[in-house]
Specification:
Number of helices: 5
Number of domains: 2
Largest sheet: none
Number of strands: 0
Structural class: mainly alpha
Radius of gyration: 25 Å
Helix content: 40-55%
Strand content: under 5%
Distance between the termini: 33 Å
Protein name: DUF5681 domain-containing protein
Length: 106
């Protein structure tokens, strides 16, 4: 592809930004330091929303935590069935969260 759209296609090229994003960026241009300092000041004054905003930048939530869970080697369908049972038991007793086996399966 040469980066051009076919006749009648009003889409934007890949990676281009829409007008609203460009307008917001131009309004905020040069204000990042002042806005950051305001958020920090409000957080230090006890504003819980500002505090969360700052903390999410300092220490973002962990999205993918490694899962350590022992499973026997699977050689056949019976082994796989037993492994699935072990995983379900681990979820039911709290060893694994509900989402961890789903992530492992994908």
């Amino acid at each position: 592809m040469d980066g051009k759209f076919t006749d009648g296609n009003g889409g934007r090229p890949k990676g281009s930004r829409n007008k609203a994003t460009i307008a917001i960026d131009s309004l905020l241009e040069g204000q990042a330091e002042a806005l950051t300092q305001t958020a920090i000041s409000k957080a230090l004054d006890g504003d819980s929303i500002a505090l969360r905003l700052c903390m999410d930048r300092i220490a973002p939530p962990i999205k993918d935590k490694p899962v350590v869970f022992p499973l026997a080697q699977m050689r056949d369908a019976m082994d796989a069935s037993q492994a699935a049972g072990s995983v379900l038991s681990a979820v039911s007793d709290g060893t694994l969260t509900f989402n961890q086996p789903v992530a492992l399966a994908n």
